[in-house]
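I am still learning, so can you show me any protein sequence you like together with the matching structure tokens, please?
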Amino acid sequence: MTSPTTVTVLGTGIMGFAMARNLARAGLSVRAWNRSHAKAEPLAAHGVTVVDTPAEAVTGADVVVTMLYDGPAALDVMRSAAPALRPGTVWAQSTTAGLDGTAVLADFAREHGLVLVDAPVLGTRRPAEEGTLTVLAAGPEEIHDTLAPVFDAIGSRTVWIGDDAAGGAATRLKLVINSWVLAVTHGTAEALALADGLGVDPGRFLDAVAGGPLDMGYLRAKAGLLRDDALTPPSFATTTAEKDARLIVAAGEAAGVRLDVAAAGAERFRRAIEAGHGDEDMAASYFASLTK
């Protein structure tokens, strides 16, 4: 009888916590580390071994999953883990790191003989908790079977983009998708702010577009958070959204593509953060419209 795949999760924030729990529920052997140990401790009740250092977490792991704030954070944690990393270990890098960040992480993987998989995910808190994320993945075909039980535990669908993890094929697609997600978020926030400013019941706006080509589930979800004053706990925090927006703008600049909406959106998030809404859901873009 073969032993279960041993998976290490580095980073147990909104996404990583749920991913680690679902991996354990699927019968995998899971170790987890988080910079704030207290945030990871509740995972022990779900069968996850919570450890004190990244090096302890990756010792003997078959697969290492990184779900951290950004590329520099992922690199810092992996450097701490480096003494215990075995050459040939599969590294599913799920942090949204941008193009430059992914290139730096790919260099680290080559230096340490790791099998890198560029593996960002689509989805926020609820899909992560339900194990229904979509995994976008780029990596060598020979490790697909190794990763199947891991990706199946955290998501309902895995989309293999190609075999070149270092080229960031999956990250490129994630940035394109996130550019749309953030644009819809800002559009919803601005429409509701304008409705409030003009004395229009936001419900009338939603009723007017209901069922037509201008309606969409994401509009309903973000409008609902604002109307119900339910921005905490965040599904996707404003601080993280600002970081992603700036990665999108940087990617566009590198490609010779001017992204005016994404750049303006990053500034909206910055203003919302300055107003004290950084830890709230990114629908808090609404508050960037308030001038009084």
Summary: Strands lie at 6-10, 29-33, 49-50, 63-66, 90-93, 115-118, 121-122, 133-138, 155-162. The chain has a mean pLDDT of 97.
